[in-house]
Amino acid sequence: MQIFRGAAIVNSNMNLSNKIRLFITCGYLSLLPIYGTAQRQSNFFITGKIINASQNVLPGITIRIQDTDKGAVTKADGTFKIGVAFKGDYTLNVSGLGYEARTIAVAVANRAVEVPTIVLEESIDVLNEVVIKGKSQEQEKREEPIRIDVIDTKKLQVQSLSLPQVINQTSGVKVRQGGGIGSNVVININGLEGNAIRYFKDDIPLDYLGNAFNLSLLPIDQLENIEVYKGVLPVKLGIDALGGGVNFLTKPNLANFVDASVSYGTFNTLQANVNGLYNIKNTPLFIGFDGYHVSSDNDFENEVLIANDMAQFDTVNVTRFHDKIETYYGSLRAGIKDHFLADLWEVSYARFDLEDEVQNGTSLEEAFGEVMYFETADIFTHRYKRTLGQFTADLFVSYSEVNTFLLDTATIVYRWDGTILPDVQGVNGETSPSGFIRNLKFENWTGRLYATYDLGENHQIMLNHNLVDSYRIGSDPRSIFDNNFDRFTVPALYQRNVSGLGITSEFEKLNLKNQASFKRYQVNSELIDRRREFNDRQIVIDDAFYGAGNSTKYSFDDDRFLRLSYEYTTRIPEAQDYFGDGLFQLQNPELVPERSHNINLGYYSYLDRQKNYWVDLNFFYRYVNDNIQTIPLGLTSQTQNTDDVRSVGAELVVKGEIIEDLRFNAALTYQEVRLVNIGNNATGRINEGARLANLPFAFANLNLTYRTELFNLSGHWNFYLNYSFTEKYLLSTIPRRLEPALFEEIGNFTDGIIPTQHLVDAGASYEFSKLPFTIALDVYNVLNDQIFDNFRLQRPGRMLTAKVRYQFKKF
Predict the structure, then answer these.
(1) What burial class does residue 364 get, using C-beta atoms within 10 Å of its C-beta: 0-12 exposed, 13-18 middle, 19+ buried?
(2) Where would you tag: which of 103, 141, 277, 323 has the fewest CB atoms within 10 A of its CB?
(3) Long-range contacts formed by 334-340: CB under 8 A, 24+ apart
């Protein structure tokens, strides 16, 4: 069978080795035009390092070639690199705030010339009463016209925090997890969640990685920082989303390093992580690696209902007995950087293995004792970046093969206490009457081309195209019901194309920065409708939509600005939404894309630069047509189009330093997400304006961090305390007039309400000054409170975790 995939024809029966050859060939051919251009250039490079008199590296120092516009700024490790066209003698002008300027003579005779380490002396002319602080890259992103919250994970990696814990401290963001380690994680941003929020790794959509980037598994040590976009997505990311996106940025290819950590905690939870980079000396070649291992018994307590001898149900606390997870991930990459062939040219291979005991479905109604889920993935990627004058291109291509296996053949039925129901006959599975022996194979292609062209200093044109292509085939003999036909043997096809065109402009005299964008969204899919009443009909989907957006920032002065953005956008259902996930999510071939009007208005102001006090106040409005929501259906769930939804809300963030070295971050969010235009029937009249079910609407976060030296030790102690508050919310839709008021006490607790929750995490770590080690001890859910999430699934109680981290950078 031949399937059209972008620019190539791929045979679905092609073996893996041939696919790898095709993948490498496509990547090589894509570079020939650029290689031909670069090959005719004669580029030489001047490199070096800048330090102060105390031998500390100096980032942010400017180096400029005299009488030219060529130059560079030193990186975090104090190094710099400048490209020149010809051999000859050059003069470098070196300057930085608070340091005496220097002039360095350099003779370029070879391809690469390394300047001896440059030492800058502090300037005696700096006024003691004036303190000028430069902006970090994270701070500059926060001040863009598009609303971006940046989480600097480098500062958090001394702790054994999970990614959901870290992201949950962001204003306007609520992270919800359906259980323990390895369970599904959903991020809610400004009232929208699920796939309305898109996820990226280094600007690339995460579709090709499967569960390898599950947020409850991925160690934060793998990341440099996290960007949380609210409302409008920039053309750089350029994909369909309604509420925003989360971009996980990995560590850059800079200096050599090895970073390894291991942690162990409650419920026999083991997490190990390693990543590193080695630059081959005197060459542009580098080799990088990263990997992790996670395992946990997840044997925490759940509050469930168990039938007694009187045929009534008692509420009891039981220990989960079949929820162990074990996973391995490893990746190896190699390439060249800062060369006349490419700024970056990288290929990689990754392997992922998952073994998961399945304890329950979408709800806690029934316990499973033998259901197993397995997943493996082979992932190949290719990336190329090149700047030629005012033009920059970034090309990414990946191929992944993901294999899943769901096994459910039990002939017995388990209670939640681990015992077996007696005298049960005719059972062939725990999750359904027939059970599963389901093998599925997903072949995923992801392509992304991003290009920019600078129109002078203040304007830039951007073009982006994203392709996601998925092919699924498999088998399940337990699914054969009519005409001896296994529906999974028929291929299911999915392709999503999103194109974006944008322009950024800066009008200095007007104190304005602006970003405008235009996008096109297209989806094509073919699949079998497996519902019996439709007699295995073939479904063909072919839709296209258009959208536009604009973001403007007006600066009152260096300390205050106003931000306004609008976007009309479309969110195309994922392949999993159409196909189902082969586990507990049912297929829905009748889904239609959801569309949304998004408006964001924000005010940002420094209150005290000396203590880095600042406040960020934002208001948002969303109106979503054909809202897509996950609906529970007993043990399973299905993604469905529901009624239109209107979301209105506000969020407030205040950050600063209380006293020296004691910092705080407080965030408050309130959002009204309600059903509108339901219809003129009885149900519509009753539920018009009702709150969207299973969605928090009022929550707050407080984070305190303290860094100090104690006990006359030369290292540093780091202490933190995180507090998260979530107001009670409804598990199902009820008329607005019956909704409990904010903070109203409810005497009789019902299963229809998820109660008010208080989650406290705390921890301490110690960084050795003369050794590359950090040790940490963290406590999750200090109060051991009952924490509920998606569909009232219970999360773990108190967890203690100890972590040791090793960092080595000098080789």
Answers:
(1) buried
(2) 103
(3) 334/285, 334/286, 334/287, 334/288, 335/253, 335/285, 335/286, 335/383, 336/284, 336/285, 336/286, 337/253, 337/284, 337/286, 338/45, 338/81, 338/284, 339/284, 340/38, 340/39, 340/41, 340/43
Residue showing tokens 């600063």: 656
Q: State how far the Cα of 505 lies from the Cα of 279, in Å rounded to an integer.
A: 37
Give the sign of the dihedral formed by CA 421, CA 423, CA 428, CA 431.
negative
Residues with Cβ within 8 Å of 134's Cβ and at least 6 positions away in sequence, in order, are 60, 97
Q: Which residues pair with 794 in a beta bridge?
A: 788
How many Cα neighbours within 13 Å face the side chain of 190?
31
pLDDT-derived band at 680 (thresholds 50, 70, 90) equals low
Phi, psi for 17 (deg, rounded to 5): -65, -40
Cβ 339 vs Cβ 284: under 8 Å: yes
**Which helix (H) or strand (E) segment is 26 a member of?**
helix 16-39
User: Within 610-692, where are the H helices?
Assistant: 682-687
**Residue 300 confidence (pLDDT):** 93
Report whether 282 contacts 167 (CB < 8 A).
no
Which helix H or strand E contains 796, and what residues bound it? none
- Angle in degrees, CA 570, 575, 577, rounded to 5: 75
Q: Exposure string (b/e) for 387-419, b if CB count within 10 Å is 16 or more?
A: eeeeebbbbbbbbbbbebbbbbbbeeebebeee
Looking at residue 138, its pLDDT comes to 66
CA distance 371 to 361: 10
Tokens 């030219």 correspond to: 68
Query: Checking DSSP bridges between strand 118-120 and strand 44-52, what pairing results, if any?
Result: parallel
pLDDT tens for each residue of 228-272: 988 788 888 878 888 788 999 888 777 788 999 999 999 999 999
DSSP code for 293 = E
Greatest Cα pair distance, the chain, in angstroms, is: 95
Condensed to tens digits (0 to 9), the pLDDT of residues 47-68 reads 888 988 767 778 888 898 887 7
**Distance (Å, whole) CA 610 – CA 608:** 5
- Residues with Cβ within 8 Å of 544's Cβ and at least 6 positions away in sequence, in order, are 520, 521, 522, 523
pLDDT in tens, 481-511: 656 778 888 899 999 999 999 999 999 889 9
User: Measured on CA atoms in the order 92, 93, 96, 98, is the torsion positive or negative?
Assistant: positive
Separation between Cα atoms, residue 147 and residue 561, nearest integer Å? 12
Residue 165, SS3?
Answer: helix
Q: Could you read off the pLDDT of 76-130 as tens digits, one per residue? A: 678 888 888 777 888 898 988 778 889 898 988 777 788 888 988 876 544 343 3
Region 563-579: what's the mean pLDDT? 89
Yes or no: say if 710 and 676 are a contact pair by the CB < 8 Å rule.
no
Rounded average pLDDT over 17-22: 48
Give the closest residue to 308 by CA, choosing from 417, 454, 176, 187.
417
Tokens 């004669």, residue located:
42
Does an H or E element contain 39, and which?
A: helix 16-39
Q: How many CB atoms lie within 10 A of CB 282?
A: 9
Output the pLDDT for position 38: 37
Q: Where are the alpha helices (DSSP H) in 624-760?
A: 682-687
Q: Are 237 and 291 in contact (CB under 8 A)?
A: no
Among residues 510, 517, 608, the alpha carbon closest in space to that of 562 is found at 510
Measured in residues, the chain has a length of: 811
687-708 burial code (b ≥16 CB/10 A, e <16): bbebbbbbbbbbbbbbbbbbbe
Can you tell me the distance from the alpha carbon of 188 to that of 168, in angstroms, rounded to the nearest whole number?
Answer: 10
Q: Is the pLDDT of residue 386 over 80?
A: yes
34 three-class SS: helix
